[in-house]
Task: inverse folding
């Protein structure tokens, strides 16, 4: 049975880059969200066993999404993919329950390692 994966990023180019970095043989159904509100809607609709989440988005940023998930959907696996590499941002991401923080631009090999580590591949 395929996993539901949501890619939440306000940049269409970034969402496309994440899609390209995913393993070709990974059994998933991919959904996309352009902002935090759409990401939470995808979660609430059951479209996000795994959520790839940007931090800087309109309407609701990644930190707000993580805060909501921590309080309402603790089972969602969140991998933050962001250009905001400040140590404070990374520490907060982990405090809010993200599994991993990956830096943009995303490296496909690094993503594959994380997915193996999580037991998703």
Result:
């Amino acid at each position: 049975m395929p996993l539901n994966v949501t890619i939440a990023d306000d940049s269409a180019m970034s969402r496309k880059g994440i899609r390209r970095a995913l393993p070709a043989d990974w059994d998933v159904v991919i959904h996309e969200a352009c902002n935090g509100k759409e990401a939470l809607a995808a979660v609430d609709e059951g479209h996000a066993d795994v959520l790839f989440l940007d931090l800087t988005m309109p309407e609701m940023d990644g930190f707000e999404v993580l805060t909501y998930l921590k309080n309402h959907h603790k089972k969602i696996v969140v991998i933050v993919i962001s250009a905001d590499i400040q140590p404070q941002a990374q520490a907060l991401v982990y405090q809010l329950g993200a599994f991993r923080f990956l830096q943009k631009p995303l490296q496909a090999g690094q993503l594959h390692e994380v997915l193996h580590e999580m037991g998703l591949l």
User: Anything to note?
Assistant: The helical segments are 12-21, 36-44, 62-72, 87-95, 108-117. The chain has a mean pLDDT of 95.
